[in-house]
Design goal:
Chemotaxis protein chec; Surface presentation of antigens (SPOA); 2 domains; eight-stranded antiparallel sheet; four-stranded antiparallel sheet; 9 helices
């Protein structure tokens, strides 16, 4: 019996192992996000990616749709374990206004389609091999997209935000680390979006933020009292979806079609979390038929007053033409190419990529201007949104 008893040294060793294990478990515990923080991060991701998707729609000349963001906490190791396949990673650095980095992660097939459309093709047969040429085209698209996203964040945080040119690279998560600056067990904020580009792309993109960088944005966005009044809850790392409660009378402010929406503004929302067992259903906006009108109707503006200061991008399109990559590379100073519009024909006026009017080019104090000659009907404009 005596031979089966533990000595004092063995007991001390067992206690030390137990304490070390407890310390390790405590250090590896996922950070806690309050409900207001989760909602705010979803709104930040929604505004930035919604504006970026609007820019993508203009660049690709395709309808782009972004769904409601889903916020969760993950690690590079968890991403590698669940998706050990090649991805394209776009790194964006914030150099002024905010200090930090985030990663935009997409499938290689999606990146190839975007690059193919950027090069003037139809995206139906994208290049299978992701080379430097494809990455350069994708980086140019991301540069304009994230630039517009930074502009929206500047309005949201009321400060100038400057980003460095995005860098795109391809990695195989089955054999390569997600990022050299991230350790495999470092906790990251993941904001996932479902993205469709007409019938060419139907996939998911991920926006990964370091926790400290996310906290910095939250401190700028959330009042101190709001954080203090919330109950601290651990965020579910497996689900973490944030959806609008359909039973609430308030309308959902997340735009489901970024291509038809200007830079959205942050607004109060009532958001709830569904249990992980319930599916998340996203339905497109349905518009009621509008009567034909001959003049501007007198309608009640209501809450539309809140949107009157939202900046919109007006673009005048003189004409279009199609060129091959070879022809574009051969362009030199003095080159001339013909547009698909007859001289004197009215030009198109677009607001956030949508045709709203036609007009004629005029000169005002040595500057070009446009005199509106025709306004697209309300029914036609709303039909373009569906």
């Amino acid at each position: 019996m005596g031979s089966n008893m533990l000595s004092q040294e063995e007991i001390d060793a067992l206690l030390k192992v137990s304490l070390d294990q407890d310390d390790q478990d405590a250090s590896s515990e996922a950070p806690r996000l309050q409900e207001s923080e989760k909602d705010a991060l979803g709104e930040i991701g929604n505004i930035s990616m919604g504006t970026a998707a609007t820019t993508m729609s203009l660049l690709l000349n395709r309808r782009v749709q972004i769904t409601i963001p889903r916020v969760s906490i993950t690690t590079p190791q968890e991403i590698s374990d669940t998706s050990p396949i090649p991805f394209i990673v776009v790194e964006v650095g914030y150099t002024e206004g905010l200090r930090g980095r985030n990663l935009l992660v997409m499938r290689t097939s999606d990146g190839a389609v975007i690059a193919d459309l950027m090069m003037g093709r139809d995206g139906l047969k994208p290049q299978e091999i992701i080379d430097d040429f494809v990455l350069s085209a994708l980086a140019e698209a991301m540069n304009q997209m994230m630039g517009s996203a930074a502009t929206s964040l500047s309005s949201m945080f009321n400060r100038t935000i400057v980003i460095s040119p995005p860098a795109a690279r391809m990695i195989d998560l089955g054999h390569q680390p997600l990022d050299a600056h991230f350790s495999n067990d470092e906790f990251l904020i993941k904001i996932a979006f479902s993205m469709t580009v007409e019938d060419l792309i139907d996939s998911e993109i991920m926006l990964l933020l370091q926790v400290d960088f996310a906290k910095e944005m939250l401190e700028l966005l959330l009042p101190d009292g709001e954080i203090a009044n919330e109950v601290s809850l651990p965020l579910d790392r497996q689900d973490g979806a944030v959806v609008a409660d359909p039973s609430e009378p308030k309308t959902q402010s997340f735009p489901t079609s970024a291509a038809a929406t200007s830079a959205p503004t942050a607004s109060p929302q009532t958001l709830t979390r569904r249990p992980a067992t319930q599916p998340v259903t996203v339905q497109p906006v349905e518009f009621q038929p509008l009567p034909q009108v001959s003049a501007s109707p007198q309608v009640s503006t209501g809450n539309l007053q809140l949107l009157l200061d939202v900046p919109l991008q007006l673009t005048v399109e003189l004409g279009r033409t199609e060129k091959t990559v070879r022809e574009v590379l051969d362009l030199v100073p003095g080159s001339i190419f013909e547009l698909d519009r007859v001289a004197g024909e009215p030009v198109d006026i677009h607001v956030n990529g949508k045709l709203v009017a036609k007009g004629e080019v005029v000169v005002i104090d040595d500057n070009f201007g446009v005199r509106i000659t025709d306004i697209i009907s309300v029914i036609d404009r709303v039909s373009n949104l569906q």
